[in-house]
Design brief:
Strand content: 15-25%
Strand order of the largest sheet: 4-3-6-7-5
CATH class: Alpha Beta
Number of strands: 8
């Protein structure tokens, strides 16, 4: 076992040997450059995947501060007050990504705003807060995606 960065470790296949890799739930291959807000808008959170796909992207999962800053800039540049996220609130009001990682496990944020305890879905607002929302919503909002 080693604590070296993956790029500093060399592995070789050997008969009978088992190679273990440390799993980092906050690691991501998403470059902040590739984060965008869709042109299409929706009232229904369940349409996120289809909307991102139509614009050659995938729904965004924010796991780094750099990604959050880029997502905030994308929301602000889009003139949208909010954009849909894939994170949902558990019954204990813990905000989680679809892979089960808690938002606060990877990001230090005080910006999780729970307006209504009954709401399950989330958006990123133009101030960088994660805000709860219902779906379908009254208004249509864009979706945060990445390429």
């Amino acid at each position: 076992m080693t604590n070296l960065a993956p790029e500093n470790v060399t592995t070789r296949a050997a008969p009978g040997a088992i190679t273990l890799f440390k799993f980092d739930p906050c690691a991501t291959g998403v470059a902040a450059l590739n984060i965008f807000v869709t042109n299409a808008r929706t009232r229904n959170v369940n349409k996120q995947n289809a909307i991102c796909t139509n614009e050659n992207g995938r729904p965004l999962v924010i796991k780094t501060e750099e990604q959050r800053q880029k997502a905030l800039q994308a929301v602000q540049k889009s003139w949208a007050a909010w954009a849909w996220l894939t994170a949902t609130f558990t019954s204990d009001k813990v905000l989680q990504w679809p892979d089960g990682t808690n938002v606060t496990q990877c990001l230090t944020t005080k910006g999780i705003v729970v307006i209504s305890p009954a709401e399950q879905y989330s958006m990123l607002d133009g101030l960088g807060n994660f805000v709860d929302s219902k779906s379908p919503s009254i208004l249509e909002y864009p979706v945060l995606c990445y390429k």
